[in-house]
Amino acid sequence: MSLSAADTAFARELFASIPALTTRKMFGGLGIYSNGVIFALMRSDGQLLLKAQSVPFTATLATMGSTQWTYTRKTGAQAAMPYWTLPDAALDDPELAGQLASQALAALL
After folding, report:
1. Tens place of pLDDT for every residue, the chain, 109 residues?
2. Which of 19, 54, 18, 48 is nearest to 31 (CA)?
3. Residue among 42, 50, 6 nearest 25 (CA)
4. Which positions ≥6 away from 86 have C-beta within 8 Å?
């Protein structure tokens, strides 16, 4: 399943407060960037994820109900990606989504 133009528009509206926001289709999903730095993904199933590699930020996301993106390798081993689901509360709140995106970016720079 690939994303529709409406999915892309939703992501762009949700993160509209982020400077120099751009998107790029990739692997059926969407990379979401600020000034060329990827800070979020929208998977092909429409799920939004923030890039989170610092412990304080991942802890914040976890307390908000986010989960880390994991998958099973061909060998059967579990692997974790540095992306966490966007908290449900932020899906309907562009202000909160923008704040979390700004925190993600700050941790990446």
Report:
1. 678 999 999 999 999 999 999 999 998 899 999 999 999 999 999 999 999 988 899 999 999 999 999 999 999 999 999 999 999 999 999 999 999 999 999 998 8
2. 48
3. 42
4. 40, 48, 49, 50, 66, 97, 100
Q: List, in sequence order, the alpha helices (H) in the chain.
A: 5-14, 55-63, 88-91, 94-108
Q: Please check whether the domain covering 5-96 is classified as CATH 3.60.15.10.
A: no
Tell me which residue has tokens 């700004």. 102
Give me the residue spans of the domains in the chain.
Answer: 5-96
